[in-house]
Amino acid sequence: MNNKLHCVSKPKKYYSITMSFATRLMSMVLSLQIIAAFLFITAAASSPPSGFTMDLIHRRTNSSSSRHSNPDDLRSSPRADVFFDTSEYLMKLQIGTPPVEIEAVLDTGSEVIWTQCVPCLNCYYQRNIIFDPSKSSTYKERICNTSDHTCDYTLLYGDQSYSEGIFATETITLQSTSGHSYVMPKTLIGCSHNSSGFGATTASGIVGLSLGSLSLISQMGKDMLGAFSYCFSPERTSKISFGSNAIVSGEGTVSTPMFMKKEKPGFYYLNLDAVSVGETRVETLGTPFHAVDGNIVIDSGTTLTYLPASYCSLVRESVEKVVTSAERVTFPDLDTLCYKTNTMDIFPVITMHFSVGADLVLDKNNTYKAMDNGEAICLMILCSPMTPVAEEAVFGNRAQNNFLVSYDRSSLQVSFKPTDCGVTEDKPRDSTSAASFLQFNIKFVLFLVVLSLIRL
Ligand SMILES: *[C@@H]1O[C@H](CO)[C@@H](O)[C@H](O)[C@H]1NC(C)=O
Ligand SMILES: *[C@@H]1O[C@H](CO)[C@@H](O)[C@H](O)[C@H]1NC(C)=O
Ligand SMILES: *[C@@H]1O[C@H](CO)[C@@H](O)[C@H](O)[C@H]1NC(C)=O
């Protein structure tokens, strides 16, 4: 299998984000479409597009044959523990030899798997010990053939958090249903030496699960069918499963087509036809948001749900029409509908209507949140542009709570099954209560820059 990474002549000032960024990005994206084959948006170099030199082909070792030494493992599925941490769902995995546990944001909105590494130029606080590559016998820096030194990367996310580091190959180990470990030797990961903007999260890094070739699911190889499923519990530990175990079916399951966009490769798009607010169905038809080939990204790494302003205001108005018995209140830095009340009973149930009859009736906890020590309740579907992601509609992780969500690249479907995700033997973590934080992350990748050619 070939991966293509795009190369940039060293940009001088690639980290400069302003609101004009979106427009700049847009024009660059157009000129980049031709070379944007597998990676996410790679733009944002201040150098003109002519600075983009060439694609490179990087050959991976035949991973599918090396993954399974034990025949039992062919019938087993890798899986990992998942738990909530203030605004994100983190998954546990092990890296290195001997294996070291990390907890990383489970992110379907980005591609690269990375963890903080020592030495730190600029590290944020994480709960686990920071990974030390010098203590791992399987860690190998990737060498780039333009410069004969390490392959640097810079990643920027929608909430302006970023990670800078170098690419390396390393062993990743997951649990497996067979009882044996699922071992992924020579997995391409980012070793981050400079990252920031991770706020209240205690994660060690991010696990990208997008359609891009560097994501965890892509690097697992074809035998996992590009399939995975997770179940997000707001309070307890749950699981993410890969491969045959990830297929979701049975009573209550609804499925909707998965779309891919050439101009935004890697993202999982769904098509949202309408949102019902109580009994009122608010159609996208007749608004600029309407589409038939995907208009909303499903992103486990983004906390809230965002709709584009024109359509979102219709949804908001419908909520306002129902909630008449409470006084409006506002909060700084949170542009949404809030009311002075302590009960969710007065709010309408919100249903998302995805294409081909996939109706998701959302629990009120998925769409509203108590604020101000329970004195107020706010709608957690946001209209306002917070970042250059502005015009993207995003279906975030809070709205997905208590659904078993499966992504199946072979059938191009995303399925949802209402499930009490917290029904496990596992004790709740010593988690700092989510309610005390107002932290909404957007781990929707804006760009990935790889500074030089990768050689294998
Ligand atoms: C990779 O492994 C598979 C399964 O063992 C084999 O069929 C295939 O020929 C191998 N490909 C290469 C390039 O070695
Ligand atoms: C870390 O990365 C940011 C963004 O690219 C950059 O502005 C900053 O200078 C870097 N810090 C260090 C210590 O390298
Ligand atoms: C919603 O959240 C509240 C407060 O955390 C909890 O008491 C209630 O049981 C939740 N409702 C459902 C249906 O999960």
TrEMBL record:
<keyword id="KW-0325">Glycoprotein</keyword>
<keyword id="KW-0064">Aspartyl protease</keyword>
<keyword id="KW-0378">Hydrolase</keyword>
<dbReference type="InterPro" id="IPR034161">
    <property type="entry name" value="Pepsin-like_plant"/>
</dbReference>
<comment type="similarity">
    <text>Belongs to the peptidase A1 family.</text>
</comment>
<dbReference type="Pfam" id="PF14541">
    <property type="entry name" value="TAXi_C"/>
</dbReference>
<dbReference type="GO" id="GO:0005576">
    <property type="term" value="C:extracellular region"/>
</dbReference>
<dbReference type="GO" id="GO:0004190">
    <property type="term" value="F:aspartic-type endopeptidase activity"/>
</dbReference>
<dbReference type="InterPro" id="IPR033121">
    <property type="entry name" value="PEPTIDASE_A1"/>
</dbReference>
<keyword id="KW-0645">Protease</keyword>
<feature type="active site">
    <location>
        <position position="107"/>
    </location>
</feature>
<dbReference type="InterPro" id="IPR021109">
    <property type="entry name" value="Peptidase_aspartic_dom_sf"/>
</dbReference>
<dbReference type="Pfam" id="PF14543">
    <property type="entry name" value="TAXi_N"/>
</dbReference>
<dbReference type="InterPro" id="IPR051708">
    <property type="entry name" value="Plant_Aspart_Prot_A1"/>
</dbReference>
<dbReference type="InterPro" id="IPR032799">
    <property type="entry name" value="TAXi_C"/>
</dbReference>
<feature type="active site">
    <location>
        <position position="299"/>
    </location>
</feature>
<dbReference type="InterPro" id="IPR001969">
    <property type="entry name" value="Aspartic_peptidase_AS"/>
</dbReference>
<dbReference type="GO" id="GO:0006508">
    <property type="term" value="P:proteolysis"/>
</dbReference>
<dbReference type="InterPro" id="IPR001461">
    <property type="entry name" value="Aspartic_peptidase_A1"/>
</dbReference>
<feature type="domain" description="Peptidase A1">
    <location>
        <begin position="89"/>
        <end position="417"/>
    </location>
</feature>
<protein>
    <submittedName>
        <fullName>Aspartic proteinase CDR1-like</fullName>
    </submittedName>
</protein>
<keyword id="KW-0964">Secreted</keyword>
<dbReference type="InterPro" id="IPR032861">
    <property type="entry name" value="TAXi_N"/>
</dbReference>
